[in-house]
Amino acid sequence: MAATAVRNSIQRWAGQRALEYLGVRVGQKEFVLQLERVREVMLLQDLVRVPGMPHYVKGMITVHGLVVPVLDLRTRLGLPERGRTHLARMVVVRVESSQVGGGRLVGLIVDAVTEIVQSPSTDQRILAKCRRKSRKRMLLDVDALIAAT
Predict the structure, then answer these.
(1) Other CB atoms closer than 10 Å to residue 32's CB: what's the count?
(2) CA distance linking residue 12 with residue 8, whole number of Å
(3) Which helix (H) or strand (E) holds 124?
(4) Of 16, 58, 79, 125, which sees the most CB atoms within 10 A?
């Protein structure tokens, strides 16, 4: 009986397209970003500062010939600033917000990139929880984050 239940579960899983997410840590919180939106993960680099920008926009960089604004996710989420560690990374993501032009790239400074997480759900409305080892992660809606700036 148990073997049949496991087999049925595997068949249901195999019939669904697993969604992949990039796990990131900002402060003590863990988030996931849709992996299909991630262009690349980079070491932190020097930024060109732009006067008059909000405090969480740390500057601009050039990525493959494109000028990309860089946001400090820690500051954007209202967490206190702190020194960067060797684990800090910049995640370059594609934003689909019509407010900044669909398909634009934005860099997000995170405290660490943790892992790639798979979810069997094909329901994009399930934005809240990917579980692994009883840790909850919240899906970071990059479009909403950028549109609110």
Answers:
(1) 23
(2) 6
(3) none
(4) 58
pTM for the predicted model, two decimal places? 0.77
> Which tokens is 5 given?
């239940």
Residue 61: pLDDT over 60: yes
Helix %, strand %, coil % of the chain (to 5): 20, 45, 40
pLDDT, tens digit, for every residue of 19-47? 888 999 999 888 899 999 999 999 999 99
pLDDT at 71: 94
Q: Give residue limits of the domains in the chain.
A: 17-147
Q: What tens digit of pLDDT does each residue of 118-128 get?
A: 876 655 444 44
Q: In whole angstroms, give the CA distance from residue 53 to residue 58.
A: 8
- CATH code given to domain 17-147: 2.40.50.180
Q: Does the CA dihedral 90-64-67-146 come out positive or negative? A: negative
